[in-house]
Amino acid sequence: MRVMAQMAMVMNLDKCIGCHTCSVTCKQAWTNRSGTEYVWFNNVETRPGQGYPRTYEDQERWQGGWKLNRRGRLSLKAGGRFRKLATIFSNPKLPSIHDYYEPWTYDYATLTDAPAQEHTPVARPKSLLTGGDTKITWSSNWDDDLGGSKASFENDPVLAKVSTEVKRSFEDTFMFYLPRICEHCLNPSCAASCPSGAIYKRSEDGIVLVDQDRCRGWRMCVSGCPYKKIYFNHRTGKAEKCTFCFPRIEVGLPTVCSETCVGRLRYLGLILYDADRVLDAASTPDDQDLYRAQREILLDPNDPEVVAAAERDGVPHDWVMAAQRSPIHALIQTYEVALPLHPEYRTMPMVWYIPPLSPVVDAIGETGEDPEDQRNLFAAIDALRIPVEYLAGLFTAGDTAVVDSVLQRLAAMRSYMRDLNLGREPDPGIPARVGMSEEEMYDMYRLLALAKYDERYVIPAAHAEQAHSLEALGTECPVGSGPFGEGSGSPVPIAVENFTMLRNRQTADTVAAPDDKATRVNLLNWDGRGIPTGLFPPRQEVTETEEVGEAGTPDTSDDGATGPGGTGGLTGGADYR
Amino acid sequence: MNTFLWVIVPYLCLATFVVGHYWRYRYDKFGWTTRSSQLYENRLLRLGSPLFHFGMLGVVAGHFVGLLVPESWTNGAGLSNHAYHWGALVGGLAAAAATLAGLVILIYRRRTVGPVFSATTKMDKLMYVFLAGVILLGIWNTVSGASFLFGGHEYDYRQGVSIWFRQFWSFHPDPALMGAAPLSFQLHAFVASLLFALWPFTRLVHVFSAPVGYLTRPYIVYRSRDTQLGNRRPGRGWEPLG
User: Left, alpha or beta for A261 (phi > 0: left; psi -120 to 50: alpha)?
Assistant: First the structure.
């Protein structure tokens, strides 16, 4: 057993309203540059739909991810090392920019520069690739909310695998959103496809990154990733990908997409896994067993053996503790409601999803029946094969039994909690029916519905202790320290410790309104008359008169400090320190 | 004049080539890339790029044999001069045809496909002139070498240019050997020298990142997070321990 830690994410799809806030904030943070116009580290797809880039899930066409070869060994679907080098001069499986979209801007200047004319001037779309006029035909979420779906849904590779009668009626049936980021896989096929070895998995937290100085632009990672979450920057000629906001994660902050998610549907936390068994698990013969295999290599952070092994393998103790509190571990292993996206690609993805129950609830609601009643819900999950088959195509390589059990748990939670909320006697039979205790069911409800910031994001800070920099916040003052006089030299580095210190100082109440206000004395604006608060311990017997005296003191002094009360006027001096 | 053209200029170009690469690698690792334009256009590239690159690999192999293997070695191996020239002509023409076809397709593509053309830098254009010049002159030399088929007198570069080239690497070049070569050979060598001087400042640097290490390295690369947080190294003596 070799214990490694992985920073992972779970998204609760029932809560996604498809607002694209995650995509927009991510883009502002990471890809608002020339060459990355079409790059969406985070995108939100409407399902059913083609996804971004179009039909990326059709691995017969794009050949991303891994497969088992004839001898049953794991190999890259697009061919191994020799094949890669032989096709290096022209990657046969690389999506063209038209599979994404041609980035454009508008000729805004015309709006103000145009000479006086009969008609209102218009800002024409201009291609950012050629600079010429362009016609906008597609973009990253062109089929948002099933827009134009009559023309495009036929191409959904997941829908193509479910039965034909499902296809015919899908449009009346269901729709949901699927936000996607890089999966930060345990067995990343992008890294395996990179001829230069520039893509690496960080051994501390499992985040997969591209070393921009070592990338040589061979483009094999773009075709190697089955999720098409590596993008080619067409200006710099380098591959770029979702970074899991590692500078934020390192100091204990959630990713930008999680932080800004209005639905609060994202969870972040650590999981521990056995690195020695990753290859075995990824080589599981049957596609439908991959979900179980992937769960089996995750380790229980509460198991003393695992804790000891983690310590031996260099996982810091506070990280193990964070793994124990991890919402990810709870959702995947304890409550068993989170599923990986397309486990059949055999990359062991580490962004998991709680499948949406809402298509089922909506379907019941339309019939006029009570969508909160567990009998209706359970019957509907059994009867409504359409969403279940589709969800199974996304999350379990087609195994509907797993999706059924997850949806049943969510349904059970829904009707169990309704009894509680309405003040009725809760029915212990409901949790029992899905194999959970009442307490477990309530805890799951807490995590899914109420969890606060600190419960949703359990992120231990990275270990890069810089004791010197800490004490040096004062001593390394740049004044006169550099060779070129005052202010020259280097700035104080950003480290976990001084980041946390700075944040505490900025967000705490203590500087502006100290907790220990009562015991503080500001002698600066004491003119020697009267008794400032806190200078002497309070006299027990005459508290009333003392307060009157205090109030008078600042009023008669010359410094003009006139607070509503003596304490306000005196400790107000703290602001100037 | 011979000394200037065949001693001073080549060594200056060599120095630029070596120092230039060192400098580029130190200061522009980020810019060290193929700058692929496959994302913009694939139909022409799928044809042109492999033709050109595999053709070039053949050309490099041909130069290796022609310039570095002395005539006495091939003779010693029992290969007659006549057979050698036949081999060189057939192999050379095949490689030249592939390279030329690829080059024509790629230049056509670069000029006519909008996004590719607008992503072309000035340095690219300059490099194309020299690269195409060297290739065309080289093809002319190969083709003119075919004159022996018609009983004409052929310049045996292995008695002239090749010896000068080997002397060049042992730092005792005899400029007279190049001076005696036909004009087309002189031009080919001269333009090639200039191309090598230009090399480190163009996208041609990607030749030196040919990813042969891929064949031996494990598929998944693990790397430790940089222990240095922020954008500055800790002061001397203050590096974190362990």
Answer: beta
* pTM for this prediction: 0.83
**3-state class (DSSP) for residue A457:** strand
Q: State how far the Cα of B1 lies from the Cα of A68, in Å rounded to an integer.
A: 66
CB contact under 8 Å between A238 and B228, yes or no, is no
Q: What are phi and psi of A210, to 5 degrees?
A: -105, 125
Cβ atoms of residues B220 and A201 within 8 Å: yes
Q: How many CA atoms lie within 13 A of A183 on its CB side?
A: 26
Q: Assign residue A190 a region: left if phi > 0, alpha if psi is -120 to 50, beta otherwise?
A: alpha
Q: Are B74 and B85 in contact (CB under 8 A)?
A: no
Mean pLDDT of chain B: 87
Residues 187-216 of chain B with CB under 8 A from chain A are: 206, 209, 211, 213-215
Contact B220 A191 (CB under 8 A): yes
**Complex prediction ipTM:** 0.87
The string of pLDDT tens digits covering residues B82-115 is: 888 888 888 999 999 999 999 999 999 999 998 9
User: For domain B2-215, which CATH number applies: 3.40.50.150, 1.10.10.10, 3.30.450.20, 1.20.950.20?
Assistant: 1.20.950.20
The sign of the dihedral angle between the CA atoms of A439, A445, A446, A447 is positive
- 3-class SS at A51? coil
pLDDT in tens, B137-148: 999 888 887 776
What is the domain partition of chain B in residue ranges?
A: 2-215
pLDDT tens digits along A504-539? 767 766 555 555 555 666 777 777 777 776 677 777
- In chain B the first and final C-alpha atoms are separated, in Å, by 62
CA A306/CA A310 separation, integer angstroms: 6
